[in-house]
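Figure 6 in text form: structure in, sequence out.
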């Protein structure tokens, strides 16, 4: 598989880039070099290798939900700049 100048022009157009003829040739060459290097992966023998979604085994590391007692409201509101009716009072954000 190789990238043509026409394909480079198409992608540049989608990205709204204006490229000179020299840049088009340069990008086509660079993209072809990348694809050629990626084709080496097809030479690897992957028989007997299980497909994975991640290279390391992952497991859920979340803790169990447990009910714990809450702090008393008086202690919670000690650091509140303002409080009203046992709640934090904040400036209105809607008119």
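Output sequence:
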């Amino acid at each position: 598989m190789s990238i043509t100048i026409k394909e480079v022009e198409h992608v540049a157009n989608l990205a709204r880039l204006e490229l000179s003829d020299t840049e088009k040739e340069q990008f086509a060459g660079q993209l072809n070099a990348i694809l050629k290097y990626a084709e080496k992966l097809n030479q690897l023998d992957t028989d007997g290798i299980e497909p994975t979604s991640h290279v390391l085994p992952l497991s859920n590391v979340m803790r169990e939900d447990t009910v714990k007692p809450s702090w008393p409201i008086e202690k919670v509101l000690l650091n509140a700049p303002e409080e009203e009716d046992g709640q934090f009072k904040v400036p209105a954000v809607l008119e």
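Caption detail: Helices lie at 5-14, 21-38, 73-76.
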